[in-house]
Specification:
By secondary structure, this protein is an alpha/beta fold. Helices cover 49% and strands 25% of the residues.
Length: 439
């Protein structure tokens, strides 16, 4: 081992070196007697131990101790002095010395050196272990942040949570202090309808032979709402098969569950639309027959026949039924495209009653029709579908009620001209405006 000996007496340096070698300690002793020389040896590195006298003409032992501790708090430092009272010895230990030996009892030195080196080795091992634990905790924290999961480690035998990921509140609003070290901090926040099932499954996994456990359930957030979570854990077992640790992760699945519910609803609506389209198509065929025979009967009756008014009402009812089937076909997107001259004011007017039923009493429907012409070349079914879709979107944006306004009118617009002079031309256009008071 490499020893730096702060001593101004060469004879004392040789005596200390021979004492250590005779005790079986192979060492390279480097004598120094100034602060600069001590600094240089420490800067070279590889120093295992520092020995020092207390009083010297050019340098004192306490100054040497402070210099060593500033550079390396764990490096063993032993005072070897010929004149040190009990109070002075205690003062050096308080200042950070490892031990002290009187020169008149130099036989104690090898044992002190061995003990000091062993303690330094243990301290370094503990420091390295703590550093590795800190690095591991940092890695686990980064993993938890990257996966957005809450990760935890349970001592099964002590029933104690030894570690929570650094930021569990990123998912559920709790801090590690809120949850505590007992598993009850987690289990009491499981939805009451699912708590027994989840705990029974976990205990069965702990008591069984397997190494894994998984459950889906609802976990109460701090503000009171419930999150749908996926909870997975890995079991570590002793040689006898008994579970000793349970390491797990809690994943927030709420968004996925909501999306799955939306998908099921969309599939249901698609099925309803397909059914509505089929019914509307068949019903339209029946109405066509009713209207056709009614018109034939009407054409065979004289103008003053008393049944003409009744048959005329049948024809009007058939027309209203045909309009209803067009709306159903627009809803189901089964209507064939057929562009024609369509009055948007009539489209909106015919849909108004249906919209009021569709949106419910919490949403007020206001329809405003302008004075100018509102005719366009379009497919009537598609125009009806546009208005219906916008109305349904508006309803979803107003869960607490509101106002839906539909305006149809004519307004002037500046159009880019295709003429050779490139001049802009004033033109008029029909505007269909749908607005709501929702989010």
């Amino acid at each position: 081992m490499r020893i730096v000996h702060v001593e101004d007496s060469a004879a004392d340096v040789d005596l200390v070196a021979s004492t250590l070698e005779s005790a079986g300690l192979e060492c390279d002793v480097v004598p120094v007697d100034t602060a600069e020389a001590l600094e240089a040896e420490l800067a070279r590195g590889g120093v295992d131990l520092v020995l020092s006298d207390v009083t010297m003409p050019r340098f004192d032992g306490l100054s040497a101790l402070r210099l060593v501790r500033k550079r390396d708090p764990l490096l063993p430092f032993i005072f070897v002095s010929g004149s040190m009272g009990e109070e002075a010895a205690i003062e050096t230990l308080r200042a950070g010395a490892t031990d002290y030996v009187l020169k008149e009892r130099l036989s104690r030195l090898p044992g002190c050196v061995r003990r000091a080196l062993a303690e330094a080795s243990e301290r370094k091992a503990r420091q390295d272990a703590q550093r590795r634990l800190a690095e591991l905790a940092e890695v686990l924290s980064l993993v938890a942040r990257a996966t957005r999961d809450t990760i935890w480690d349970l001592d099964v035998r002590a029933q104690c949570l030894t570690w929570w990921s650094e930021d569990p509140d990123s998912l559920f609003g709790y801090t590690a202090a809120d949850l505590g070290s007992s598993p009850a901090g987690w289990s009491e926040r499981i939805h009451p309808d699912e708590r027994d099932r989840v705990l029974a499954g976990m205990h069965a996994a702990i008591d069984g032979p397997g190494d894994g456990w998984c459950a889906e359930y609802r976990l109460r957030r701090k503000e009171g709402t419930y999150a749908h979570v996926l909870h997975r854990a890995y079991l570590i077992r002793a040689a006898d098969g008994a579970a000793t640790r349970l390491i797990g992760a809690i994943t927030d699945m709420t968004r996925r569950v909501e999306l799955e519910a939306q998908l099921r609803h969309a599939q249901k609506m698609e099925a309803v639309g397909t059914l509505a389209g089929g019914i509307a198509h068949d019903f339209n065929n029946i109405l066509t027959s009713i209207q056709g025979f009614a018109e034939l009967a009407l054409g065979q009756l004289p103008p003053d026949h008393p049944a003409r008014d009744d048959i005329d009402e049948i024809c009007k009812a058939g027309e209203r039924g045909s309009m209803l089937t067009r709306q159903l076909l627009a809803f189901s997107r089964k209507q064939a495209v057929a562009a024609s001259l369509v009055d948007l004011a009539d489209v909106v007017g015919d849909l108004e009653k249906m919209l009021r039923r569709l949106l419910g009493a919490r949403i007020a429907v206001h329809v405003a029709i302008g004075d100018g012409p509102t005719r366009v070349i379009a497919d009537r079914g598609q125009m009806e579908q546009v208005v219906l879709n916008l109305a349904v979107n508006a309803r979803d944006a107003m869960p607490d009620g509101g106002r839906l306004t539909i305006e149809v009118g004519t307004r002037n617009a500046t159009m880019a001209s295709t003429a050779r002079d490139g001049a802009a031309r004033e033109s008029s256009e029909v505007a269909l405006v749908v607005r709501d008071t929702g989010i």
